[in-house]
Amino acid sequence: MNSHDSDTRVSIINAVRERDPDRWTEFYTIYKPMLMGYFHRQGLCDGTAQDLTHDVFLKLFEKIRSYDRTKTRFRTWLFTVARNTLIDQARRRDTQRNALDGWTKRVLATAADEEERQRVEFEKQHHARVLQFAFDKVRKRSSPRVWSCFEMSVIKGMSGADVAEALKVTTNVVYVNSWRVLQNVKEVCHCYDEDLKHEPDDRLP
Q1: In whole angstroms, what separates CA 163 from the centre of its chain?
Q2: Residue 46 near residue 40 (C-beta atoms within 8 A)
Q3: What was the pLDDT predicted at 190?
Q4: Using one digit for the tens of pLDDT, what is the confidence trace for 90-136?
């Protein structure tokens, strides 16, 4: 990884650490649905999932300065924060004897292999969420023709010649536009410590 990539990858984290309101809004927009989905999959009702998602963001606000990318990817670190928040809540419920047989017992009884399965699934969701965010962001700042070159050739897998014929441009224009959009998508993904291709076991680069 060159120095530019390294700077880009930590730019979002640095902005969030500095309490940049625009970055926090973007950060929240990306991660709230993903965290809610994780808690729902563990059997939590919507109200409890909302509460725990709020708790996670409070922890992120406090702990994000301690995040060290040389030790782990952000998506793995985020899963650990979410998982620990879930376990803490389950323990509180269990101690207070207010929990019914259900998600509390399942969470506290989760074996290591199940936790690993959850991590892998969480990180897949992270990749999908960030990639979709990158597509949406780059599409909005690209012209329709430029985006169509990328969408048809890279996403849909059409040949350069077929795309050129459909859009009434040269094959070279298709390749240049697709490459430029691809670089922009990569840059946005890197800001959130993601790559275009998801590798579930690449915890460290």
Answers
A1: 30
A2: yes
A3: 86
A4: 777 655 555 554 666 666 666 556 778 888 889 989 999 999 999 99
Placement of tokens 């902005």 in the chain: 15
Average pLDDT over residues 41-66: 89
Closest CA relative to residue 78, chosen from 185, 199, 194, 205: 194
Rounded CA separation 24/179 (Å): 30
Which pair of tokens denotes residue 48? 């409890």
For residue 110 the two structure tokens come to 């989760």
Q: Write phi, then psi, for 159 (nearest 5 degrees).
A: -70, 155
Residue at 194: amino acid letter: E
Mean pLDDT of 27-32: 90
Question: Residue 49 has which token pair?
Answer: 């999932």
Q: How many residues does the chain have?
A: 205
Q: Are 70 and 50 in contact (CB under 8 A)?
A: no
Which class for 189: exposed (0-12), middle (13-18), buried (19 or more C-beta within 10 A)? buried
Structure tokens belonging to residue 67: 């995040």
Is 68:204 a contact under the CB 8 Å cutoff?
Answer: no
8 A C-beta contact, residue 81 and residue 75: no
Cα 99–Cα 31–Cα 68 angle in degrees, nearest 5: 100
The distance from CA 55 to its chain's CA centroid, rounded to whole angstroms, is 18
pTM: 0.71
